Amino acid sequence: xxxxxxxxxxxxxxxxxxxxxxxxxxxxxxxxxxxxxxxxxxxxxxxxxxxxxxxxxxxxxxxxxxxxxxxxxxxxxxxxxxxxxxxxxxxxxxxxxxxxxxxxxxxxxxxxxxxxxxxxxxxxxxxxxxxxxxxxxxxxxxxxxxxxxxxxxxxxxxxx
Length: 160
Description:
The chain is mainly β.
């Protein structure tokens, strides 16, 4: 899989001064489908987040997408990798660091994103597909959001 990820987490000491709580490196772990590896960096239990919550956000269950609160993770998609179509009740920011990935929507619309490109995913049905022979590394930040409403009814989540 991809290169290790370094995570530096700040906090406060007993005098309310800023400190580095942890500085660690870890490798993305392959997901069950075998076509990608995830490195969960942090989660929050709610939005707005509580900076008094001393739990290491990496220890909170996040699933493949988001249950509530917020999530930041690094995703390494392998060449030929395709995610299942999915829609979540979240707003997602996808920041491509390396490689290329194709975003496909349920109406067939497609966009290819490369290093430095950013996708703002607003609760739409979509999938991701790697482009070319290189892995694609993407940072995803997911924040809990109300479901998109169509004709007054919320669209259901479709989990991968």
